[in-house]
Amino acid sequence: MSHVSVIIPAYNAAATLCAAIESALSQEPAPLEVIVVDDGSTDDTAAVAAAYPCHVITQQNAGPSAARNRGVSQASGDYFAFLDADDRFLPGKIAAQLEALSAHPEVGFCYTSFLTDSGDSISRPCPLLSSILIRREAFWRIGPLDESLRNSEDVDWLMRAADEGVTPVHVDQDFVIKAERPDSLSHAPEARSALFKVMAKALARRRAKSGESRSLGGSSQGDASHG
Asked: What is the DSSP string of 185-222?
């Protein structure tokens, strides 16, 4: 058994959740735990999850970031893996990522390439959340996902990771099947405005950091001139 907690945020996912959970439980080595966070579903999501050896958490609908954060807050593993309720892990994912992280102790997380459910292989510099395995300490260095965002929360979190110097290693092999649905949040009308918000936040952070650096530099020079 690995020291991996798999966290599955789920909203009205009864139709796809079985496949997601089974893909996590069938990993070798098996995960330490699979945590399903039912984010206020109105279908049988919670009942589906309860049929498996999972830790099931229910909450009022608060969005995917809040569901992931809730799962992390209850996780006991040394590593966290996220899995959307309509995505699936392919065999060998966790083992390959644990091996990569063991070989690269300097990095905070590992991500893989993935397949869409139409069969296209995708390798990209911006990781898919369902492809990430992250060390516990690296997640908390970055901080929780922004619960005010229901779109582009992954982009925001990954940009904060870069700002904090939490670097990844990429396993260029397809280990996830990503569902592509026209009604997903990433295709919602507000997705573009959410991305603009994320970019504005990143710019503000970097300006603030640059201002702090200039201020510290000025203080140092001032101290030296009075020496």
From this structure: GGGSTTHHHHHHHHHHHHHHHHHHHHHHHHHHHHHHHH
